[in-house]
Design brief:
- There is one protein chain.
- Helices cover about 60% and strands about 0% of the residues.
- It is an all-alpha fold.
- The protein has one domain.
- It is globular and about 40 Å long.
């Protein structure tokens, strides 16, 4: 989270999350997300832009509420996975692997919708509690 200049409370407290989404993230967070997490095409899809126009978001002082919320929600999934797997590298490996408990889909492929991110978070929660999807 230190790579993003986002207070940790945003990912653990609903009110902080809501406030951050309402205030809006800077476009720089989009660039950092791609630099740190990879998954450029997912970020492009989430931001509702094209790969060629992505750089325009980087310089925006503030993203809109919807873009901010979608990006925050996706970051929450990645950070929760990193916590469960004790590293972002191992979390990324899991996110890119077909998971039987998710119908054989890769968790990252489900992250393009809110409900898909909830499914991935549920799988991570089961992992944290000793069940291994």
């Amino acid at each position: 989270m230190e790579h993003f200049d986002i207070p940790p409370a945003v990912f653990s407290e609903r009110s902080a999350f809501i406030d951050a989404a309402r205030t809006g993230l800077s476009g720089e967070v989009v660039k950092r997300a791609i630099d740190v997490l990879g998954h450029r095409e997912l970020i492009v899809q989430l931001m509702g832009t094209t790969s060629g126009n992505l750089h325009r978001l980087y310089s925006r002082k503030t993203l809109g509420r919807t873009q901010s919320e979608v990006l925050l929600d996706t970051l929450r999934v990645f950070f929760r996975a990193a916590s469960a797997f004790e590293s972002l590298e191992r979390a990324s490996e899991w996110l890119d692997t077909e998971v039987p408990a998710l119908g054989g889909q890769r968790p990252v492929d489900l992250c393009d919708t809110f409900e898909g991110r909830r499914l991935v978070q549920d799988a991570i929660r089961r992992i944290e509690h000793g069940e291994f999807p």
